[in-house]
Input
Amino acid sequence: MNVNNWTYNDTPFEEPDPQHYGFVYLITNNLTGKMYIGKKVFWFKKTKQVNKKKKKYLAPSDWKEYYGSSPALNKDVALHGVENFKREILHLCANKGLASYYETLEQFQREVLFNPEQYYNDWIIVRVHRKHVLNEIAKRNPIQSSDKSTVEGVTQR
Output
C-alpha cells in the first residue's frame, strides 16, 4: 500500500513545487466522519558543518507519512489503520505566514472548536503579521488552492 495517500483537487499529490513552503490539510476518518484541519511544511531548515563552517540547507520533511499532531487522531489512526483515513491538501502555501493564516481561516470557518463530535481539533493557535501575508503577494504569483479562486493575489476559499 502507498503510504503517501495525499490528494489535491481529488488528484494524488506526489511532490511539491520548490516555491511551496507547506500546505493546509483536512484529514477525515472514513469510519466516523470525524475530521482534523492542520498545516504541514514540505521542508525542514537544517544545518551541517562543512570545512568548520555551518551551512544551512533544506531537507524534505516527513509530510508523506504525517497524520497530524492531534493525540486523539493519531490514536484512531493506530487503532483503525491508515487505510481508513482520507488526507486532502486544501491550500498550497508559499510561506509559513500564509500556511498559518489559511489553517486558522479553515478552522474558524468550520467552527472546529464548537463541534468536538465532528473535529479532532482542540486548539486554534496562530501568530500571523500582516507583512507575512502582504509581502508574499508582492513577491509571487497567486498561491494555489483547491478551489482555484483568487482575490488580489491571495487564494481564497
Observations:
- Helices lie at 71-80, 96-109, 130-139.
- The domain at 6-156 is CATH 3.40.1440.10 (GIY-YIG endonuclease).
- The chain has a mean pLDDT of 86.
- Strands lie at 6-8, 11-12, 22-29, 35-41, 43-50, 53-60, 85-93, 149-151, 154-156.
